[in-house]
Amino acid sequence: MIKSKKYLVVIAGPTAVGKTDVAIKLATAFNSEIISADSRQFYKEMNIGTAKPDLFQLKEVKHHFVGQISIHDYYNVSRFENEALQLLHHLFQKHDIVLMVGGSGLFIDAVCSGIDDFPDPEPELRSYLKGVYQDEGIVKLQEMLMQLDPEYYATVDINNPNRLLRALEVCYTTGKKFSEQRLNSSKIRDFQIIRIGLNLPRPELFNRIETRVDQMIEKGLVEEVKSLMPFRHLNGLNTVGYKEIFDFLDSKITLQQAVVNIKTNTRRYAKRQLTWFNRTDEYAWFEPSEIKEITNYLTTICK
Fold this sequence. Notes:
Blueprint: E1 7-12, H1 19-29, E2 34-36, H2 55-60, E3 63-64, H3 77-91, E4 97-102, H4 105-113, H5 123-136, H6 138-148, H7 150-153, H8 161-174, E5 192-198, H9 202-219, H10 221-227, H11 243-249, H12 255-277, E6 283-286, H13 291-301
Parallel strand pairs: 1-4, 1-5, 2-3, 2-4, 5-6
Helix pairs in contact: 3-4, 5-6, 5-8, 6-8, 9-12, 11-12
């Protein structure tokens, strides 16, 4: 790392708020590159339903961690932390400012503050736990975690199967409670972090969400999901926009109802994202149209 100050600028916020457009404008202004911290955009098979940057946007500014893995690959937040830090070390040789944009709060925090270093479980254990989830559902995972680690059960989102599976993996692998092994302090980074939050008045944000969902349907979301039907059991596909279309393809609901459900679940997801980002006062909040104000803010800090 060279001696001059280096800055990681985080552009975070709820889905559909306009993070990609803002990040591209800022990256162009500061002659920089973009790291994606949207965990759904990591998968190369998932394009329309994850609102990936289009080909024009990808040509405008160099993006990293967009479509770099397959839905068949095992990937977790710890690996993202390590790979993103390695990439930042390389990028900071060329740039004083690098942007990280996304709505996956856990992945953003991993790069900014660190994540617990837990051992990877044996493949047999992961396969067993996934089988339990597929055969007996999320309630069984909840019961298992409640028995093994009631403290973590009391704080985790018990409707998030990935969080439950990860905690169970750690409990079984280490023989200790997951809650007893989590970090209580942040890791020190050799670059400065500036957090920008984007938001809009609730009616405007929800309108943008509904418009985006309609556009996804027009672009061929149903056809994309249909091509992924054989792999629907994979964790990457257990996400908003795909689950609802799977229900439609299973003839459980109409396409019209699937679209309504996607819009409803996306609004709920946006609310959860805002709750996550508002856990800290480190974000400076702007509307996505305030490019000049954001640029001035960054210029003042990064003198």
